[in-house]
Amino acid sequence: MNFLKSNASLLFVVTSWFLVIAPFLVLFEKTDIHLYINQHHHPVADIFFKYATRLAEGIPITIVLIVLILSRFRMALATGIAFIGSAVITQILKRFVFDDHYRPAKIFESVADLHLVDGVSQLTQHSFPSGHSTAAFALFTMLGLISKSKFLQVAFGLTAIVVAY
Question: What is the average pLDDT across 7-31?
Answer without folding.
Answer: 89
